[in-house]
Design goal:
Elements (H helix, E strand, L loop, with lengths): L1 H14 L16 H6 L22 H5 L5 E7 L2 H12 L3 H18 L5 E4 L4 H7 L3 H13 L8 E3 L11 H8 L3 E3 L8 E9 L3 H12 L4 E9 L1
Parallel strand pairs: 1-6, 2-5, 5-6
Antiparallel strand pairs: 3-4
The structure holds zinc ion (2 copies).
One zinc ion binds next to helix 2.
């Protein structure tokens, strides 16, 4: 079966030559030029949300509304990284996903977190059926492979089919997803959980996930995203 998949994969590569998900250049899914152009988010940054600061305290937005977990994002959401994440929304490209999984693993190692299970931000059933896959799940699996951690896409559920966050102001975003996630009572008892999503915008979605996971008994919850708006 794996041999067949490889053979089909090689055939598809011949029919549809690989293009860079960042710039469309031929030959590789993520080219050196795009890699060099990444604006990586490093210290000093807001302790809670990872926003770049000139000290290590909290950013203004975390002072007014503190997300329910610490989050780190690999890069600024711009240029080729933004292109690649858009690409991933519609094309579940395994090579792109592996590349991004390695980025998340780099962050995970750098932060020295002690998470024991990786959980993707779930999509609603309706959106999952429509799109056919959840890009956060693919990223979580890629990170799990790199970090040697189990991935659990089923314990955290999206219970409210919220409207899309696109076009909402920050206040509306927090309100929109506040009750969107749920996990069965005690299903995360004592767990150290790492939640994964593709993009951090206001932190509302990750925060709502962390609240639901903690309510189900988790000991700690942290978050990673590929990019940050
Ligand atoms: Zn490129
Ligand atoms: Zn912050």
């Amino acid at each position: 079966m794996i041999a067949l998949q490889r053979w089909v994969g090689a055939g598809l590569d011949l029919l549809f030559p690989i293009q860079c998900a960042g710039c469309g250049g031929a030959g590789t899914i993520w080219c050196v030029e795009c890699d060099v152009s990444i604006v990586r988010l490093t210290e000093p940054q807001c302790q809670q949300c990872g926003y770049p600061l000139d000290n290590r305290r909290s950013c203004p937005s975390c002072v007014s509304r503190r997300p329910a977990l610490r989050v780190r994002s690999y890069a600024r959401y711009k240029g080729p990284v933004a292109q690649a994440l858009l690409h991933l929304k519609y094309h579940p490209d395994r090579r792109l996903v592996s590349e991004m999984g390695a980025w998340l693993d780099e962050l995970h190692v750098r932060e020295g977190w002690r998470a024991r299970v990786v959980v993707p931000v779930p999509l609603s059933k309706r959106r999952l059926q429509h799109r056919g896959f959840n890009q956060a799940s693919l990223l979580a699996e890629a990170l799990g492979r790199c970090a040697g951690l189990p991935v659990d896409p089923s314990r955290l559920k999206r219970v409210n089919d919220t409207r899309s966050q696109v076009g909402l102001d920050p206040h509306e975003r927090w309100h929109n997803v506040r009750q969107a996630f749920q996990a069965e009572a005690r299903s995360f008892e004592g767990a150290d959980v790492l939640v994964v999503d593709d993009l951090f915008t206001t932190g509302a979605t990750l925060s709502a996930c962390a609240t639901a996971i903690r309510a189900a008994g988790a000991q700690s919850v942290v978050g990673l995203t590929v990019a940050r708006a």
